[in-house]
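Quick note —
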Amino acid sequence: MYQTTKPRGQSPVTIIGAGIAGAWQALLFAQAGHAVTLHERSDAEMTEATSHWAGGMLAPWCEAETSEPLIGRLGLRSLQIWRELLPNTQFNGSLVVAHARDRSDFERFARLTSQYRRLDAAGLGELEPSLEGRFREGLFYPDEGHVEPRRVLPELHARIIKAGGTIQFNSEVDIDALDGIVIDCRGLGAVDAEPELRGVKGEMIVVETDEVELQRPVRLIHPRWPLYVIPRGDSRFMLGATSIEAEDSGVSVRSALELLGAAYAVHPAFAEARILEFGSGLRPAYPDNLPRITIEKERISVNGLYRHGFLLAPALAELTLSYVERGALDNEVMRCK
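Predicted structure written out below.
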């Protein structure tokens, strides 16, 4: 799987895009001793980045329901990197539930995934007291985790600076005019250079209620409107799960009704929750929905993370660093022009 050629040396490294993909690239290269400059077209709030609207779930086993084995392989490595470099990352596991009428879809999910523990109603109540009496059974994935994107991105940026890197916000650069190694992590901003990219819209709602307490993401299996509820702390929850083949912004009325209805199906107290925010982001994806590292001399593109950005970014950064320093190639992910 891995092929090694001669080392690339310690060239200066310029990274474009400070979202989750670019932030991990910058951190690993800076910690390895490279002179790193990270450019971001928006300000430090990162509200224009897809990462700003992400769920932040680190769930390789749950994602196996719909993804290729490559996602699981890279995801497992990423979990190790999250644990090693950001030990405060929450690894409370993931919980999957369904109502009795959707038992067949629940069992299908169980067949397609692994590394879970089946819980009966009593076990569910012990794990998440707010869900006591709500579901007959659940699947608990104890080794999965989640992060709050809007908190972890600033933490990654601070660590980049601490490691000796430089971050320039509100910085538009001409990639062709840059010297040295350039790593393009612009997502859909790179569509001019990579016309295969498309945007897949993911919508989210943030609500607030002190009547529900959850310690981990909860996925509701449903044939029409699957949902995940992610605790964000301070009585806030993110509701999401849409994947829409569209490149417009905003949240549709239909999606809002489905997300809010699904949240009510998880717990009726969500009916009284206060809506804090609607939002959407465009996930960059190739036709096969798999990530890709494209190499053309000293120009490297890291893109196509689709709906797995926070899960895959650390492992992809490690692969890029290994290529630059040792010429190592992962043929499942990398393409050389």
